[in-house]
Amino acid sequence: MLEHTAEESKDMELSARNQLKGVVREVKTGQVMAEITVEVEAGSVVAAITDSSRERLNLQDGDQVTVFVKSTEVMIGK
Amino acid sequence: MLEHTAEESKDMELSARNQLKGVVREVKTGQVMAEITVEVEAGSVVAAITDSSRERLNLQDGDQVTVFVKSTEVMIGK
Amino acid sequence: MLEHTAEESKDMELSARNQLKGVVREVKTGQVMAEITVEVEAGSVVAAITDSSRERLNLQDGDQVTVFVKSTEVMIGK
Amino acid sequence: MLEHTAEESKDMELSARNQLKGVVREVKTGQVMAEITVEVEAGSVVAAITDSSRERLNLQDGDQVTVFVKSTEVMIGK
Amino acid sequence: MLEHTAEESKDMELSARNQLKGVVREVKTGQVMAEITVEVEAGSVVAAITDSSRERLNLQDGDQVTVFVKSTEVMIGK
Amino acid sequence: MLEHTAEESKDMELSARNQLKGVVREVKTGQVMAEITVEVEAGSVVAAITDSSRERLNLQDGDQVTVFVKSTEVMIGK
Question: What ipTM does this complex have?
Answer without folding.
Answer: 0.90
